[in-house]
Amino acid sequence: MGKEGNEWVVTRTGRAPSNIAVIKYWGKRDEKLILPINSSISVTLDPAHLSATTTVSASPAFESDRLWLNGKEVSMEGVRYKNCLREMRARATDMVDERTGVTIRKQDWANVHVHIASENNFPTAAGLASSAAGFACLVFTLAQLFGVKETYEGELSAIARLGSGSACRSLYGGFVKWNMGQDVDGKDSIATQLAEHTHWDDLVIIIAVVSSQQKETSSTAGMQESVRTSPLLHFRAQEVVPQRIKQMEEAVKTCDFEEFAKLTCADSNQFHATCLDTSPPIFYLNDTSRRLIGLVERWNRFAGKPQVAYTFDAGPNAVMFARDQEVAVLLLQRLLFQFPPLPDLELSSYVVGDQSVLKSAQLDSQQDLQTIPVPAEMAGAVMPLRTPGELGYIICTRPGQGAYVLDADNVGLLDPISGLPLQLHQ
Ligand SMILES: Nc1ncnc2c1ncn2[C@@H]1O[C@H](COP(=O)(O)OP(=O)(O)OP(=O)(O)O)[C@@H](O)[C@H]1O
Ligand SMILES: C[C@@](O)(CCOP(=O)(O)OP(=O)(O)O)CC(=O)O
Q1: Average model confidence (pLDDT) for the chain?
Q2: Ligand minimally distant from the alpha carbon of residue 134
Q3: Can you give the residue ranges of the Diphosphomevalonate decarboxylase-like N-terminal domain (predicted)?
Q4: What is the pLDDT at residue 7?
Q5: Under 8 Å CB-to-CB from 2, ≥6 apart: which residues?
Q6: What is the widest separation between alpha-carbon atoms in the chain?
Q7: Is pLDDT above 80 for 389?
Q8: Which of 141, 162, 176, 265 has its CA 20 to 30 A from that of 154?
Q9: Quick check: helix, strand or coil at residue 118?
């Protein structure tokens, strides 16, 4: 090592987005290697609104590998963290740290512990794929620290997959496919980018956060039960998904919103049908989720063609795609009409993320909500319930870029001298 003794600390920081599957992954053929029973396709969410930021430091002075998640130390004993770290360490290379001048040789890395601090800019473990952003970010940032170069395309995604299946898709931006692969060692179960986020840049994504609470059945446990007990899941994986993957790839390639919307809604509904087909049944959707589905379905039918698509992961939150900004404004108006905020809440705290949709809708404060017209498809129909506070909040976002490096000196979460979380020093 270039510097004498235990004095040096090298640090890297990265950011990785969350992603939302439009053709769902549900079920593993190998629990240890996290190999899925079908391929899946996702849209990467704008990291400005839904991402994990992770700082990793290494120093011979560190006594053990440690992890702080959202400011609190958590154990790194879990097999998923261990697997990711082991695979990354095994690929470490000789590297020179420009900031400190330290040279670390390949063989030295095995004896150097790491400190990791990570923060999510959205709720953790609430069905918004924090594990996807978190593990993608961990692997991506460790690759910067250890100087790992992929020996085949998608190698890092295969390692992120060991942390959480859906994490393999979060390394890339835009539209991403996780190929289920065939190999027993999982080498070909990797993510590839179908198209950059700029390829289809008029899509707007609006997330209705129904609950930020931790869910009863984790995705990992839920899909195990479904594989064990749901005949529908096996039919889906073998007969339905392969065809849908091809159709979705084509819809993305040609920016065909109608086809994209039909496939997205159908696949979300079939995924939740497999949950209901599981014994005992798993319920991720609740009454609010169903009201959101009703809102979109009623509007799409009235319009004669899909304006908005919805999809739900393992939780009640709706992720909705509007075909463009104009439709996004109409969607936000409908959401605010049917799901107004509690009276004392600022509108800007209720609708967060990309504020441009709120601006285009000319909605500045709660008073402006009175001006929203009754949606055309509801005129003359039985008015749905309007319960203020039924939704927690709304996030406006877009498809976004994949993982990227940040300047550790400016936005790092660990002190570059001590390697301890910065907030512990304040
Ligand atoms: N930034 C992060 N860095 C490292 N690990 C993380 C990070 N964020 C989340 N995790 C891990 O992921 C776990 C949460 O995963 P879980 O699957 O329960 O929720 P989720 O990913 O938010 O929901 P879902 O996968 O159903 O969309 C956390 O307990 C933690 O172990
Ligand atoms: C419903 C889903 O979000 C399931 C995601 O499951 P996870 O990737 O969280 O599961 P593990 O691989 O066990 O960590 C659908 C999807 O993202 O494709």
Answers
A1: 94
A2: 1
A3: 16-191
A4: 82
A5: 8, 96, 101, 102, 103, 104
A6: 79
A7: yes
A8: 265
A9: strand
**Helix, strand, or coil here: 17?**
strand
Atom of ligand 1 nearest to the CA of 129: 27
pTM of the model: 0.96
Structure tokens at 274: 């497999």
In total, the chain counts a number of residues equal to: 426
Residues having CB closer than 6 A to ligand 1 are 52, 69, 118, 120, 124-132, 134, 138, 218-219, 313-315
For 11, 87, 124, 167, the CA distances from 65, given in Å and listed in that order, are 14, 15, 22, 21
ipTM of the complex: 0.97
Q: Identify the residue whose tokens are 């020179």.
A: 96
The tens digit of pLDDT for each residue in 227-285 reads: 999 999 999 999 999 999 999 999 999 999 999 999 999 999 999 999 999 999 999 99
Q: Smallest Cα–Cα separation from 143: which of 82, 197, 95, 108? A: 95
Give the C-alpha separation, 246 to 266, whole Å. 15
CB 189 within 8 A of CB 155: no
Q: Are 165 and 8 in contact (CB under 8 A)?
A: no
Considering Cα of 318, then 320, then 326, then 331, what sign does the dihedral take? negative
Q: Which residues contact 207 (CB under 8 A, 6 or more apart)?
A: 128, 317, 318, 319, 320, 394, 395, 397
pLDDT level of residue 379 (50, 70, 90 thresholds) = confident
* 76 CA from centroid of ligand 1 (Å): 14
Buried b (16+ CB within 10 A) or exposed e, 191-208: bebbbbbebbeebbbbbb
Neighbours of 253 (CB within 10 A): 13
How far is it, in rounded angstroms, from Cα 369 to Cα 187? 52
Q: Count other C-beta atoms under 10 Å from residue 366's C-beta.
A: 18
3-state secondary structure of 34: coil
Residue 281 preceded by cis peptide, ω within 30:
no
Q: Which ligand does the CA of 129 lie closest to?
A: 1
Residue 155, beta-bridge partner list: none
Which band of pLDDT confidence, cut at 50, 70 and 90, is reported for residue 368? very high
Residues in CB range of 386: below 8 A, 6 or more apart: 337, 338, 339, 340
Ligand 1 atom nearest residue 52's Cα? 1
- Domain architecture of the chain: domains with CATH: 10-199+403-411 (3.30.230.10), 204-397 (3.30.70.890)
Residue whose Cα lies nearest atom 2 of ligand 2: it is 313
